[in-house]
Amino acid sequence: VLLIVKDVYAVLMIIGTYFFMSSFLIGKKICPGMLFTIFKIFVLFLCFQVIYLNFRFVASRILNYRVWKNIKGRWIMITGATDGIGKEMALILAKMRQNIIIVGRNAEKLAATQAEISKLTQCKSILMDFAVEQSFDDVITDNIGMLINNAGVSSEYTKDFVDEERITQIINVNNLNAIKLTQSVLKKMDKYSYIINIGSKVADFPCPLHVVYAASKRMLKSWSVSLAYELNHRYIHVEYISPHFVATKMSKIRKSNLFVPSAHDFAKSVVESVGTWWENTPYFYHVVQNLFLMFIPEILIGYAVYFKHSHIQKLALRKKNR
Q1: What is the pLDDT of residue 11?
Q2: What is the pLDDT of residues 172-216, one digit of tens each?
Q3: Residue among 157, 105, 161, 158 nearest 128 (CA)
Q4: Strand order across the beta sheet in which 75-79 lies
Q5: Beta bridge mates, 144
Q6: What gap in Å lies between CA 74 and CA 121, rounded to an integer?
Q7: What gap in Å lies between CA 160 and CA 214, rounded to an integer?
Q8: Helix, strand or coil for residue 192?
């Protein structure tokens, strides 16, 4: 019902804008009543968006308990679990006494992370480099209740164009191996299970100077949402997590702030909110950003991102050439 009402308000906004522009273009006098009506529609639309986004945020947390009840006793597999968001999620889930399988490419980091988690709960590790196409059928032996596709790689700011090797790595890590791993897990996955795909908000607007990375996240989102429809009848919940900036090694952001959470704070928001929506922005101040971005034309967002990334690129090149 909320989604239908949301779309109705969007249509009313379009109709109001159409009549306003039509009157302006043909030279008709625009009466104050028409302007006030358009303004009221806009305010109603804005109020509804605030209510709707807050409802989603609160509901995801209220209903979150079902997830841990459904997968109790089974295993949670997390890719890219030796750093950043993946590692923080693994540690948070370990404190909840969930059984954890961590996947990573660095043997030393993997062993250290496994040792840290094993102090809290059962933990297994799988050494695997997602930058190279992998086969997973022989790897999946446990009863997986939740798969978190977290492994990701981005392009470098110090290059104008992504080289062919890096393009292959981005697609292999962000798309190909995530899909292949999911297919292998699904062959043995029971109902009331969960597939969580960690994406990015760059999937929703232009992202110059990170074009391949943004495209890979757009593909991940499309696949995730489509898969959610496909697996719904099997009672397997698929969810795409859509964050803005998070302070991690990959984002090159060192200091967190109100709108850029630390890896721990963001991971905590994911764990506390998964299991309700097919697409989810779990961190509250990222939801606030979504509300503002809703009213900014895409062309302005595209140019703003371009100028910001250009500035970061100059700083990165300066640092590299020292």
Answers
A1: 58
A2: 999 999 999 999 999 999 999 999 999 999 999 999 988 999 999
A3: 105
A4: 123-127, 99-104, 75-79, 144-149, 193-198, 236-241, 279-280
A5: 75
A6: 12
A7: 15
A8: coil
Encoding tokens for residue 175? 């798309």
User: Exposed/middle/buried for 219, CB within 10 Å: 0-12, 13-18, 19+?
Assistant: middle
pLDDT for the residue numbered 309:
86
Helix, strand, coil percentages (3-state) for the chain, rounded to 5, are 55, 10, 35
Quote the mean pLDDT of the chain: 88
pTM of the predicted protein model: 0.86
Residue 5: which residues within 8 A CB-CB, separation 6 or more? 48
CA distances from 52 to 3, 55, 138, 250, 254 (A): 9, 5, 44, 32, 33
Specify which residues 25 forms β-bridges with.
Answer: none
285 is an active site residue:
no
Catalytic residue among 213, 240, 285, 306: 213
Spatial CB neighbours of 213, under 8 Å, sequence gap ≥ 6: 153, 154, 155, 170, 174, 200, 202, 207
CA distance linking residue 58 with residue 120, whole number of Å? 29
Architecture (CATH level 2) of domain 66-291: 3-Layer(aba) Sandwich (3.40)
Once rounded to an integer, what is the mean pLDDT over residues 228-253?
93
Q: What does the pLDDT read at residue 43?
A: 77
Name every residue whose Cβ is closer than 8 Å to that of residue 318 and which is 6 or more positions away in sequence: none
